[in-house]
Each structure stands twice: as C-alpha cells, then as structure tokens.
Amino acid sequence: SITSVFRVVVELFHYPRRFEINFQNGLSSQSRNIDLHFNPRWIYDSTTKETTKLIVLNSRVNNTWQNESRINDFFPFKGGHLTDILFEYKKDEWLIVIDNKYSFTYKHRLS
Questions:
Q1: DSSP 108
Q2: pLDDT of amino acid 77
Q3: What is the DSSP code string of 15-47?
Q4: Which residues neighbour 75 within 8 Å (Cβ) at sequence distance 6 or greater?
Q5: Whole-angstrom Cα distance, residue 12 to residue 44?
Q6: Are 77 and 12 in contact (CB under 8 A)?
C-alpha cells in the first residue's frame, strides 16, 4: 500500500479569514480533480459580532465540488501563530494531524 506524508507549517496573519491547502490529482494545468481540499475558515457575523471557526474538507471530481465535510468541534488555529499540519495519504483515506494534538480522517473520493 502507498503511504505518503506531507508536512506543512503555516504562519497565519493576526486576523485571518481563511486559507486552503489542496492536494490535486495530476498536473495543475491539466487536472480539475482535487483529492483533498483543506480549508480552515473564520466567518465573522457583523450582526452578532461573533466569529464562527470551522475546518472545511472537500474534493473536486471532474471539475465539480462534492458535499463539504465540516469540522467545528475543535479549531486549533490562531492568528499570529505557527501551526504544524501533517497530511498522511493512506490507501482509503487521509489522516490529518494538527500540532500533534488533533487528528481526523477524510475518505478519498477520487477513484
């Protein structure tokens, strides 16, 4: 079985809105498929003055976004800080580990 590990260290602005990391299938100029779209978001509501923080995971298959998976039970990202993210590509899923504290999986949607 094929396993690959990618480590990304992110330093965020003090007041971030979002960032994304995409693992694409094929060359960027030719492929429209994204196996893993990793997208932490800070969504500010000007009415309530509240900020919703969540991690969105998704895939794009044949140039069509699939249904989003949302994680909002933990959010380890802070503006102005470094965050260490490991992405491990496994046979059936991605294992994502953030700061060696938080981990979750995301099933492959590309065949």
A1: -
A2: 93
A3: S--B--EEEESS-TTT---EEEEEEEEEEEETT
A4: 40, 53, 54, 55
A5: 17
A6: yes
Given a contact cutoff of 8 angstroms between Cβ atoms, the answer to whether 54 and 69 are in contact is no
Instruction: Give 39: exposed, middle or buried? Use CB within 10 Å, 0-12, 13-18, 19+.
Output: middle
pLDDT in tens, 69-106: 999 999 999 888 999 999 999 999 999 999 999 999 99
Amino acid at 50: E
Other CB atoms within a 10 A radius of the CB of residue 24 amount to 15
Give the Cβ contact number of residue 85 at 10 Å.
19
